[in-house]
Amino acid sequence: MSEPASLPSGSGTGSDALLCAERLGKRYGSRAALSEVSFSAWPGEMIAVIGPNGAGKTTLLSLLGGVQPPTSGKVVRAGGAVGWAPQQSALYSKLTVSENLRLFARLERVEDPEAAVARMLEQTGLGDRAHERVERLSGGNRQRVNVALALLADPPAILLDEPSSALDPGQRERLWSFVGQRAAQGMCVVFSTHIVTEASRHADRVLVLDQGELLFDGPPADLAAEGGGSDFEAAFVSFLRGRGRS
Amino acid sequence: MRWLLAKDLLILRRSRLLVAVLVIYPVAIALLIGFALSASPSKPRVAVVDETPPNTTIVLGNTRIGVGQYTDELFSQVQVVRVPTRAAAVVKVNSGDVLAAIIIPDNIVGKISSGVQQAQVEVIYNGDALKQSLVRSAIDSALAQANLALSQQIRAVAVHDINLLLAGGSLGSLGSSQEIVGLSHIAPMLEGVASRTPAGADRTTLKKIAGFAAFAAGNLGIAKNVLTTVSQPIAVKSTLLHGRRTPLDTYAVVVAVSISLMLLSVLLAAGGVALEREENTLARLIRGPLVRREALLVEKVLLAAVCGFVVALAMLIGVSAFVSLEVSRVAVWALALICGALAFGSLGVAIGALAREVRAASLLAFLLVLPLAFLALVPSGSVAGGLYSVIAAISFVFPFKAALQALDAAVNQSTPGLTISIVHVLVVALGFGLLARLGLRRAE
Fold it and tell me: Which residues of B make CB contacts under 8 Å with A?
C-alpha cells in the first residue's frame, strides 16, 4: 500500500470542522472500495475529490452523505445534515421542478417550504421552468434541480458528485459561480470531478484517491508542484505515475 | 408518509396509460380465467353418416326399438353435421371443418338384433395430440351415453318379458296375440291338480314339476333386479366433508377477483419501489432521517393495496348484478379484500426492492404471480402426491392461495374459514414485508 504523499493540515479530525472522515473504509464483498480515508472539512472550504475511474470518489461522497454506512471508521457531521447531489440526477421525472422542490422541502421539514422553493428557483435561475415536468428538461437543467434539492434545507455542507458532467461550458461556469457564492457565504463544498482542471480552478483543497486510497490532501498548487508537468492535468497524471499508478 | 402518498398519486394521475393498463389488463385476464372456469365445454362439431334405412327398428324378443332412439342420444352429445357418405365425412375431417366423423353402418340393426354379434360404429378423427385426446374423450363419452340409453331400452324389454313370464298375460306376436299362463301361477295350479290325482307315480311327478315351477318363478323374479344392477352397476352418492357446496360460477368470480387484486396490487407496489430506484430518488429519500425505510415500504404497500381493493370491490359488486352473491356480506368481502391486497402489496414491494428498474420489476412480478395463481388452482389428486405437496408448500408461502381462500370464505362461506385464512394472509404479508426491508439494503 502506498503512503499518502503529503497530508497537510486537512488530514484527520479537527475540532471546528463541519465534516470529519475518520479512517473510513468500505468493502463490497472481498473488494475494498475505500481504505482508511481520513480528512476534515471546514466552513467555506471547497474540496475537490479527484482520481481515475473506480478510485472510490462516489463511494467516499455517499459515505459522507449517509447514503450508505461505512464498513469501518466513521463520519462526523458536526454541523448536522449535509446536502447531497448524486452524480445522476435523483428527481421525479413526472413531477414539475417546483413539485420536486416542494416535496423534498416538506420531507426535510424545512420551516417554510414555499419560501425555500421560491428561493431555490431564483438562485438556480429555474423560475421560468418551475411548472415544467422534469422529464422535459435538458440534462443541464436537471442537474441544476438536482443541486437545488441538495441546497433546499440550507445545509452547512454540501456534497456534489460530478456536478458538471452533464453540463455545457456555459452551464458549468454558472454552476461554479453559484457554488462559489455559497462557499463564500460559509458553506463547505465537497465535490468530485473527472475534469481535473475544475479542481485546480475552483477548489481550495484537492483529495487524490486511487483504488480506494487517499494519496494526496492539500492545495492544488502543491499537487501541481509535486507532480510537475506543463499544466495541472499533466501534473496530476505525473503524480499518479510517480506512485506507480496509471 | 402523506407527502409520499400524495406524490405517488400525482404520478399515477399523470400516468394515465399505465393506470389504464394496470386496471384493464388484470380485469381482462381475470374475466378470461373466470369464463374458462365457469363455462361448460362446447359440443364438438362431428360429421355423422347414418347408413341405416329410415325408421329402422331393432326387434328384441317381442318388442321393436327404433334405431332413432340410439342415434338421437348419440347426436345430443355432439354438434351434428350430417353428410351423405363416408368419403364426404373424411373430406370434412381432413379440412378441419369437423373434429371427427361417426359412421353408423347399415348392418348395425342386424347385428344388435342377432344377439350374438357386437354392433360397431366407426369414428374417424384427425388433428394434434391434444385435439385427438379431446375428440376421443368427447366421442367416447357420447358413445357411452348412447350405449347406456340403448342398454336401458333392452333392459326395459327384458324386464317386461320376464314380468310376462312370471305373471302371464297377452303375448303379442306379429299381429296375433296369445294368452299365456305365468310361471308364478303354474305351481299352485299343478299343486291343485296333484292334490286331486290319486297317489302314485303321476302325482309324484306333478309335485316335482310344481316344485320346479315355484323355484323358477322365484329366481326369475331375482333376475329383474340383476338386470337393473348390470345396466348401471355403480351409482354415485356424494358426501361433502367440509363447508358448503360452492357453485362453480361464484367460485369463478372469487378466482377472477383474486387474480385482478393480485395483479394490480403486486404490479403497483413492485413498480412503485422500482421507480424510486430507477429515478435514483430512493437513496435520496432513505439517506439520513428524511424517510424511514419501513415508512417508505408501508406507503407503497398502502397505495397498492388501496388501489387494488377499490378495483376488486368494484368488480365484486358489479359481478353481483349477474351472479347470485350475498351483497349483504359486503363488509366481510371488504375485510378479505383489504387483507389480500395488503399481502399482495407486500409481495410487490419485495419484488420492487429486489429489482433495479420498473421493467425488471414488472417482468419479475408477471413471471411470479401468474404461475402462483395457476398452482393455487391445482386440485389435490389431479397430480402425483409428491408434486402436489410441493405445489401446496409453494402456495402456502405466497399470498395468492390464502387470499383466495379468505375471499372464498367471505363470499361463499367455504372452508377453511375467514379467520384462519386472514391470519394466514397477514402472516404472509408480514414475511414479504420483512423480505422487502432486506431487499432495500441493496440501495445502501
Answer: 3-4, 7, 10-11, 14-15, 279-281, 283-285, 287-291, 444
User: CA–CA separation, A197 vs A220, rounded Å?
Assistant: 10
Residue B216, phi then psi, degrees to nearest 5:
-65, -40
Distance from CA of A69 to the nearest CA of B (A): 7
**Number of CB pairs < 8 Å for A and B?**
53
SS (H, E, C) chain A: CCCCCECCCCCCCCCCCCEEEEEEEEEECCEEEEEEEEEEECCCCEEEEECCCCCCHHHHHHHHCCCCCCCEEEEEECCCCCEEECCCCCCCCCCEHHHHHHHHHHHCCCCCHHHHHHHHHHHHCCHHHCCCEHHHCCHHHHHHHHHHHHHCCCCCEEEEECCCCCCCHHHHHHHHHHHHHHHHCCCEEEEECCCHHHHHHHCCEEEEEECCEEEEEECHHHHHHHHCCCCHHHHHHHHHHHCCCC
- Minimum-distance CB partner of B7 among A81, A92, A149: A92
Q: pLDDT tens-digit profile of A112-154?
A: 999 999 998 988 888 898 999 999 988 888 888 998 998 888 8
Cβ atoms of B77 and B141 closer than 8 Å: yes
- Half-sphere exposure of residue B251: CA atoms within 13 angstroms, side-chain side: 13
Task: Using an 8 Å CB-CB cutoff, list residues of chain A that contact chain B.
Answer: 62, 65-69, 81, 84, 86, 88-95, 99, 103-104, 106-108, 133, 149
Report pLDDT digits (tens) over B336-358. 999 999 999 999 999 998 887 88
Nearest Cα to A34, choosing from A5, A74, A78? A74
Q: Is the ipTM of this complex over 0.90?
A: no
The answer to whether A99 contacts B287, with C-beta atoms less than 8 Å apart, is no
CA angle B427, B307, B433 (to 5 degrees): 25
Return the closest-CA partner of residue A157 out of A191, A123, A125: A191
For residue B442, the chain A residue with the least C-alpha distance is: A68
The Cα of B286 is separated from the nearest Cα of chain A by a number of Å equal to: 7
* Residue B266 Cα, gap to closest chain A Cα (Å): 21
Please give the C-alpha separations between residue B1 and each of B6, B13, B348, B421, in angstroms, as whole numbers.
9, 18, 18, 29
Contact A83, A161 (CB under 8 A): no
A205-210 β-sheet, strand order: A83-85, A157-161, A188-192, A46-50, A205-210, A213-218
Contacts of A96 (CB under 8 A, 6+ apart): A130, A131, A132, A133, A134
Asked if B290 lies within 8 A of A107 by C-beta distance, the reply is: yes
Report the candidate in A17, B288, B290, A51 with the shortest Cα–Cα distance to residue A59. A51
User: Can you list the residues of chain A whose pLDDT is less than 50?
Assistant: 1-13
Q: How many CB atoms lie within 10 A of CB B59?
A: 13
